[in-house]
Amino acid sequence: MQFTDEQITRYSRHILLPEVGGKGQKKIAQAKILIVGAGGLGSPAAYYLAAAGVGTLGLIDGDVVDLSNLQRQVIHHTADVGRPKVVSAKEKIAAINPDVAVVTHEERLTAANALKIIGQYDLVIDGVDNFPAKFLINDACFFAEKPLVHGGILRFDGRVTTIIPKKSACYRCVFKTPPPPGLVASCQEAGVIGVLAGIIGTIQATEALKLVLGIGQPLTNRLLDFDARKTALREIKVRRNPNCPLCGESPTITELFEHEAEICAVRT
Amino acid sequence: MQVKINGKPEEVQGTTVSAILKAKNIDPHMVAVELNDQMVDRAHLDHAMVKDGDRLEFLFYMGGGR
Lengths: 268, 66
Ligand SMILES: [Zn+2]
Fold this sequence. Notes:
The complex is a heterodimer of chains A (268) and B (66). Chain A is α/β, with parallel strands linked by helices and 268 residues long. Chain A has one domain (31-237): NAD(P)-binding Rossmann-like Domain (Rossmann fold), CATH 3.40.50.720. Chain A contains 9 helices and 8 strands. Chain A has helices at 5-10, 12-15, 21-30, 42-52, 85-96, 114-118, 131-144, 171-174, 195-213; strands at 32-36, 56-60, 101-105, 123-126, 148-154, 157-163, 222-227, 232-237. Chain A has an 8-stranded mixed sheet with strand order 3-2-1-4-5-6-7-8, sandwiched between helices. In chain A, α7 links the parallel β4 and β5. In chain A, α4 (42-52) crosses α9 (195-213). The radius of gyration of chain A is 18 Å and the shape is globular. The mean pLDDT of chain A is 94. With 66 residues, chain B is mainly beta. Chain B has a single domain, classed as Ubiquitin-like (UB roll) (Roll). Chain B is 11% helix and 33% strand. Chain B has one helix at 17-23; strands spanning 2-5, 8-11, 31-35, 38-40, 55-60. A 5-stranded mixed sheet of chain B has the order 2-1-5-3-4, with no helix packed on it. In chain B, β1 and β2 (8-11) form a beta hairpin. The longest helix of chain B is centred in the N-terminal third of the chain and has 7 residues, at 17-23. The A-B interface holds A 37, 39-42, 69, 73, 126-131, 134, 151-154, 157-159, 173-176, 178-180, 183-188, 190, 192, 197, 223, 225, 234, 236-239, 241, 243 and B 6-7, 27, 29-30, 32, 34, 37-39, 41-42, 57, 59-66. The site of zinc ion has 7 residues of chain A, from α8. Zinc ion binds next to α8 of chain A.
C-alpha cells in the first residue's frame, strides 16, 4: 500500500519517529483492533486509535447512549442520547479520520458470538463495565490467541494490564473467578471520576499501538494501578499461575461460558 | 512483625494471610492475594504463613470501564 500526500502529512508526527516511520505507519494502517464497549474506556481509545490511523476499528456494544454516560464517555455528545453507542461512535471516528474503516457490532459480547467476532481482529481492548464480561473477554482472547489490553476503573482508581495469551499472565492467573455478585461495586451505581476513563483508556490505546508496531516493552506480567487521589502509579508484578483454571497446567475451563450476571447493587 | 502490604511497611498481628486479612477487615472474596510475588489460592489463605519481611499484595477487583 502507498500513502497519499495527504496521508503523509496527516501522519507526519508518527512518520518522524524512528520507531514508527513509514513502515510502522503502514502496520498501523493494516491493523484491526476490536474495542469491546463503546463507553468510558472505549471512547478515548477509539478517538486516539482513529486519529493514529488504525485501518480497521471494530466496536461492539448493544447499549444506547444515556445522559449519565456523558460525564466520561466523551465520544458521545448530548444530541446522541438515546442513539446506539456504536452508531454514535462510528460517526465521530469518521469525522476524525476517514481513513479508518469502522465495523459496528450492535450487540453484547456473548459466549456464542465472542470467538467469531474476536477472530476477525488482531487485538482486543477491554472497555466493559462488569466482571462476567471481563472474564469472557479474557477467555475468548485466550482461545482465539489474540493479545488483550485489559482496563478497569472504579471511583478514583484505575488499572491496566496487557495479556499475551499463553505467554504472559492472564486475568484468571490473578483473579480466578469474578467476585460474588453484589460484593464488589462494579456497575452503574458505583461512582467514578470521569477523567479516569481518559487516563486508563489512553494507556490502553498506547499499549495497543505498541503491540501493533512491535516496539517497547508491553505491560505484560504487570498490573499498572493508578490512584487519582494521589496522582500515583503503582506497578504490581504478576506471573503466569500454574494453577490458573484457563492457562495453567491442568485447565478446568476448556470452552467459553458466561459467569452469572451481577446484581447491580453496591454494598458499602 | 513487619511486612510490606501493597508496597507499604506495616506492623501486623497474626502469622497467616487469613489472619492479616481479618485484622484488616478485608473480605477474602474481594481480593486476590500475592505473597512474595506468588499468587496464593483463596482456598489456601488459612495455611499461607507470613514471615517478618514478607511482601503481600492485596489486589482488589476493579471492574468498571463504562
Ligand atoms: Zn491464566
